[in-house]
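Hi W.,

Here's what went into the run:
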Amino acid sequence: MGTVNDAIFANKLGHFYQDIAQDLGDFVHTHIGTLSREDIATLSDGQTRVINYANQFFSLSDKIAFEQSESYFNGVSNAIDSYDKAIKEIHDINRVIIISTGVISLALAIVSQNGGGILSSVQTIAGAVKG
Amino acid sequence: MKNTRLLASGLLLLCIIQAGCVQLKEVHAFTETCQTTLDKDVQISYGYVDYCQDSCYIFNVSGRQLADFDCNCQNDEGYDTVIKKEYNILSAYFCALGKLAGTQSKINFAPIATAIQAGTYGNMVVTTEESTVVSTLATVATDLLTTKYKSKKIREILVRYNDTLAIAMELLKLHIDNLKSRIELMRTKIQQRCDLLMANNLTDAEKWSTVYIYKQKRKELAAIISSYDKRYGSLDKIKQGHSTLYANVNDLNSATLKKKVIDLASDIIYFNNN
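Here's what came out:
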């Protein structure tokens, strides 16, 4: 994977996290009247972390800082497209929290280039999406 | 008699040259549109420095003193300069491409006309009249040859620099999209903070102020995001246009290509005007 492709991939990851952040925000915005304070706090905290990761990926894309990323990112690439739609369709607060926790772990694993962490996070999210 | 033969030979030469000459008006129109658009889009009303200053307080939830919200945006000034330079370089490239494609512009060749002077050349005598006629033909030929040269040169440049330009355009598109997306994230953050504030037990006046500020900032950011969408769209069309020229490099005069580049130029103008 060349540097431009690395930058494109980082940008794509940024968009994935950006979509999740927006979806989490919309979820809170829509259900704020019925959510407990604890749930609001949990989701907002998760959303803040997702926003921070999205920012981090867009920043990395600008700096073209990804190196030797191919081996780690192939699996993530395939998974991304299915997740960003899923959260829009789920209205179960517990599953939304599991997904947001999963994507945060995934981001951490990507940033630290932890192959095992990427796989387990992908599995966690996939499980929550399927229900 | 000698003059008549010379004149006839000159006219024949002109016909041959003209038959092989390529008119690249559409290509020129496209490159000119690209240059104009890039020159316009380099005037960034909201860049990295502005983002740095806004994000500095929007993302800072723990700051207590005014000093906590002061931020160092020195690096961001550098990013803005890089983006401007990239736009300027691309603009210069399309300007150069336009000069090669344009029918009005000329490459600075030593004129052929000056090579023929009245006088005696071995067995041949060139009179002043003859010299004037041939020189006039030579001047026209120079233009046509120049156009011929230019169409050859434009092929050479398209082939040689297409990959480089594609990468440069892709990187610039990425920079534009990355910054736009970060601005969108800032908008998401504002929504989150306002939702959380509204969920607290605010007075009516506090709620109204919160909603007012939220709406104002969203409107401001929406306009900025829209301007970035236009810039991105223009860059995408410019890149497509260059790729189309490259794909048709051996037939720059084809009707299909002419239509494609004019359509792309229209799309770019549309992005600029809407």
